[in-house]
Amino acid sequence: MIPQQDIPDHSQDLHNFQKDVEEAIEYHLANGGANAAREAVKDLAKVYFYKQEWPNVSREAMKKIKQYEDKQLIMEEQRKQQHIENAMRTMMGSITPQQQIQNSIPVVLPQELSTERAMLIWKLLQDSHLVDENYQPKVSRTKAAIMAGWFFTQLNMDVQWPLFETLWHRENMRSDHSKGMDQKQMKTFQNKLKDIEASIPKPRTNAQLAAQLPRS
After folding, report:
1. Beta-bridge partners for 131
2. In sequence order, what are the residues at sequence separation of 6 or more whose Cβ sits closer than 8 angstroms to the Cβ of residue 166?
3. How far is residue 23's CA from residue 18's CA, in Å, rounded to a whole number?
4. Helix extents (H) in 92-160
5. Whole-angstrom Cα distance, residue 95 to residue 85?
6. How far is CA 129 from CA 18, 124, 136, 170, in A?
7. Which terminal residue of the chain, N or C, has fewer Cβ atoms less than 10 Å from its own Cβ?
8. Which of 19, 22, 112 is nearest to 65 (CA)?
9. 3-state secondary structure of 135
10. CA distance 58 to 45
11. Of the candidates 204, 181, 175, 179, the residue with the CA atom closest to the CA atom of residue 193
12. Other Cβ atoms within 10 Å of 50 Cβ, number
């Protein structure tokens, strides 16, 4: 029989693992999405050498991530259905395109534009009177395109024009962005976006997250 004092106690390691997994899920779901959260959990499991009793922690983490994905899929389907219904009403002449936007309550944002960080940015843009309560731009087409490109930069994402084209009921935003970048007067608007950017917390990098992990 192994003496009690010779049995290694991993309870503190397990507690740290659970805590770090929870924090990683919360951070990556808010800033990078479900796939980034999964990779973070896998990386943490490698860092902690995945003790024998710990698979349950990772399974629960993956379950939580899947529930988040399912919720986002439901919201996306609701958004698509709402768009179809509004388009049909417009074709039948029951509402104008402008009324369509105003009556879209609640507005269902795409997953990439509805993370915790994205919602903070939306709030700052609303407070600055650049978008309305339905997340529609209150500026010119070129300024709206510049703002959309800047939005993706704040989310540390590649620009995905179709997301904003669908949300804002327009096309050719890439062209609008190029035109806006060529306008000298756009500098003032870009400075306004920089002022807003100063109020947005900088996302933590993977290196910063790793630095917070306990060292063996």
Report:
1. 137
2. 83, 110
3. 9
4. 97-102, 116-127, 141-154
5. 11
6. 42, 9, 10, 20
7. N
8. 22
9. coil
10. 8
11. 181
12. 15
**Inter-residue long-range contacts of 163-166, CB under 8 Å, 24+ positions, other chains counted:** 163/110, 163/112, 163/113, 166/83, 166/110
Q: Please name the residues in contact with 212: beta carbons below 8 A apart, sequence gap of 6 or more.
A: 20
- pTM value is 0.50
Structure tokens at 121: 């940015």
Q: What is the pLDDT of residues 24-34, one digit of tens each?
A: 777 777 776 77
Tokens of 8: 């290694």
Specify the residue for token string 């904003």: 164
Tens of pLDDT, residue by residue over 72-101, are 778 777 777 777 766 665 555 544 455 455
Query: How far is 36 from 78, CA to CA, in rounded Å?
Result: 24
Two tokens, residue 149: 């490109």
